[in-house]
Design brief:
Belongs to the peptidase S24 family. By secondary structure, the chain is of the alpha+beta class. About 20% of the residues lie in helices and about 35% in strands. The relative contact order is 0.13.
């Protein structure tokens, strides 16, 4: 059975509405948005549609997050649209620095297995093949092992570094000897793992994976 045959007209309408909201506003639709789209009066009717789409593998819901909707690869294939991911700003590959966040949804080659795209500023990770101007694909995670390259947040500041757990000590390590290790404090939060690097092309007009 093809993906198209697995969806009713109304279910496909919901999937299209989610995509339009992501593309046009940068955020998934609210329940109120979907009620208006479907011309229904109850949130439960909308939730039933979302549950069916999730059960069929077209979307993923994050119950703990407002507007927590993500279209999965199967959903984009059904819509015959190249997958898009949130580009959430610039992360310094240097000391902690304030993130420049400007959420947009972009398409950038093979982004399977990732949740967000981050642009890199700085050269502290150059020996790991991550250079100034590159884009990295980050997968959200709650579990990390020593050696993972991670996106770390401390208050409103972020950085991309290698997570090290060695001899009872944990810290963030640069892949450039000019930069010092960064201690992990109680309020440090590891957001996710870098799972792919898109290198900035030499002419600056695109990216190579």
């Amino acid at each position: 059975m093809s993906s198209t045959e697995e969806l009713t007209k109304r279910q496909k309408q919901v999937l299209k509405a989610i995509y339009r909201s992501l593309k046009n506003s940068g955020y998934p639709p609210t329940l109120a948005d979907l009620r208006e789209e479907l011309k229904v009066s109850s949130n439960q009717a909308v939730l039933d549609f979302l549950r069916l789409l999730e059960d069929k593998g077209f979307i993923k819901r994050d119950e703990g997050t407002a507007r927590g909707l993500k279209i999965l690869k199967k959903g984009f294939e059904m819509l015959n649209i190249q997958p898009i991911l949130p580009y959430v700003g610039i992360s310094p590959a240097g000391p902690y620095s304030e993130a420049v966040e400007d959420i947009q949804w972009v398409s950038l080659g093979n982004t399977d297995g990732g949740d967000m795209l981050i642009s890199i500023k700085g050269n502290s990770m150059k020996n790991a093949g991550i250079n100034n101007g590159d884009m990295v694909l980050v997968k959200k995670s709650k579990e990390f092992k020593s050696g993972d390259i991670v996106l770390s947040r401390n208050d409103d500041e972020v950085t991309v570094k290698r997570f090290i757990h060695d001899d009872g000590k944990t810290y963030l390590k640069a892949e450039n000897p000019k930069y010092k290790n960064i201690p992990i404090y109680p309020d440090t939060r590891l957001v996710g793992k870098v799972v792919r690097v898109f290198s900035r092309s030499k002419n600056g007009q695109g990216y190579n994976s």
